[in-house]
Design brief:
Strand 4 (150-154), helix 5 (160-166) and strand 5 (172-176) form a beta-alpha-beta unit. The chain has a 6-stranded mixed β-sheet. The protein is elongated and about 95 Å long. It is built from 7 helices and 6 strands; from the N terminus they run E-E-H-H-H-E-H-E-H-E-H-E-H. It is 33% helix and 14% strand. The protein starts with a strand and ends with a helix. By secondary structure, it is α/β, with parallel strands linked by helices.
Length: 207
Amino acid sequence: MKLQIINLDGKKVGDVELLDSIFGIKPRSDILHRVVTWQRAKARAGTHATKTVSDIKGSSRKIVKQKGSGRARQGEGFNVHMRGGAVVHGPQPRSHAHDLPKKIRSLGLKMALSSKAANGELMVIDSEKVAAAKTATIAKQLAKLNLKKVLFVGADSIDVNFQKSIANIPYIDALPTIGLNVLDILKHDNLVLTADAVKAIEARLGE
């Protein structure tokens, strides 16, 4: 697969040949779903908690006497059937993460990249580096390229000036290659890779 390399002004500066084994495979929704589910589960805090009987503070005095009141028998006020009492079998802190084979994770990333390429939503630029941090300048360049909800991917790191320039623009994000993931690719309308990022991705995912 061959794509043009452009600069941030939209001018062609070269061409790049993308590996079909990474950018040209047929996406499968079941694989993408498994990877996204794995990512979201791993990101969950798992800090939800309810109080058990031993966690409730209060008097353990019997609410009413055992006999003679004409009412049902009652024990302590913090039992699970009482208002303000404990919760039985409620959620406790735990990890929601689960295992997913490395081959499936790698395949999911390839399919996410391939889906963007197949839909014409993949773009390659020569570099994301800019001379100064100017949000207005970057905003004009993005409008010229018709990019509204886009993920930029650099090689080892993202240029500091570029990162500052897009910080206040909604729906514009940037990641180094090491942070590239299926969820971020799919939730953006467009994916923009630098020429160095293409090489890094092919080195990371190449067989």
